[in-house]
Amino acid sequence: MKKMLVLLLMLALAAVPALAEEPLTPAAGEAVAVDLDGDGAGESVSWAYAPGDYDDVVTLTVTAADGASCEYATGIVWNEVVDIVDLDGDGQWEILVSGDVMSDDYCAWCLRWDGEALYEVLFPDSGRMDATDGYYLTGYGQITAISGNAVTLSGSQDVLGTWFGARTFALGPHDRFEFDDDGLWVRDIEEFDDGLWEYGALTVAVPLAYADLNGNPAGTLQPGDKIVIVASDKQDIAQFITPDGTEGVLAISPNYEKGWGLLVDGVSEDECFEYVPYAD
Fold first, then answer.
1. pTM of the shown model
2. Distances in Å between the alpha carbon of 96 and those of 106, 162, 168, 252?
3. Distance (Å) of CA 95 to CA 54, 180, 197, 258
4. What is the pLDDT of residues 235-259, one digit of tens each?
5. Are residues 140 and 199 in the same domain?
């Protein structure tokens, strides 16, 4: 009987995925030893920032056990972040690097080592456009959190103004990430300061009906009311908050006739608000 219990326990433990290791966060110029592909032969990983007039880059260097090395260059200008982590606990480590590639335009790379070169793990489209379609070599946004097999990216979104919105991506099969959240870009809470209500809020210009967070009719915003968009799916809904803490949802849709921007309950956003603070 004891042998049977031990066997069952061993089988149960074998079915549990391995826990991911803690991320390694090397400083620029620091080399760390890690078995990137889990083959038993360790590699050395380092990175460096090379400023220039037009070609600022963060370059990753992997040196194999036999001394052969491989470089991978990104277009990051500043705010670089580099983590090396086995996201899904499969013994193969991922190199995560993200940063600002232009003026507040952040990108993220997830790279794997195949024994000879680094290759990209794909991200689903999460850019500033209204639609999401396909997979890309980079994710749009800065990596702001790593949890289990998931990473959070925060990047500029254009929904009734430009603001930083975050979504979560989980590493799945086929060397690619998938969205791993409720489908909403959520505004960076660090943006919520006194200046936001003065410079980033929307001032309502016409009466706007809104729903509660469950989708039920809840009331009407009046001209002069101020709101801040806090989350959106970029297609159908935009969640907001008022200075007194009232939360609600506006019905939005892409403005196909104009070719850009949004309609709020069928009306152009430019007519609904005194000014819509989009960034170039």
1. 0.84
2. 13, 26, 15, 35
3. 25, 20, 38, 41
4. 999 999 999 999 999 999 999 998 8
5. no
